[in-house]
Amino acid sequence: MGRVTEPLPPHPATADLADAVREIEHHVAAAGWDAPVRVFALVRTQAALEAEPGLADQLHDDVLAAAGSAPWHLTSIEQEGLPAAADLEALLAELSWPASVDGVAVTVERVVLPPEAEAQMPRDKAQALDYLLTHPDRQDVRLAVGVLRDGPSWCAVRTRANDSDDQVGQGPHLVPGLVAALRSTLD
């Protein structure tokens, strides 16, 4: 008989990371669709307040209270002036973070097809793009993915067809390739 292993207890920051990713996704969703890639540094709010006490004047009282009671409460800082890159993979390959950054999150929009439609996609790039954009079963999705340095990941997925805050899919490993790419920016 095989050995039974107990699941590992969740990382103490998982709930706080999930909250931060949800907050980022809601913030980006408020701006509507057809948006560019957005990147956010994630820092523990308590550490940010210790390093920069004036930050308290910019945060709401409920954020300050949450940060006081949760050591992993995270503040997201949108990154502006990102380097020009041909695609998301190239952009992430150019990013690195100082030790004061506890994690990173990104939002990106994609078009997805059901597996059977994807299998029929032409190999030629121009034809494949046309096929993707005109396919009747295509779905526009927004991905919000966050990772912590040596810690958990969290993903939120919203479809344009079900564009409602209560219709956002969530979980730690929904977009494993993007989770891995984000994690590599923290190495």
From TrEMBL:
Record InterPro entries: PPA1309-like
Protein name stated in the entry: PPA1309 family protein
Record organism: Cellulomonas edaphi
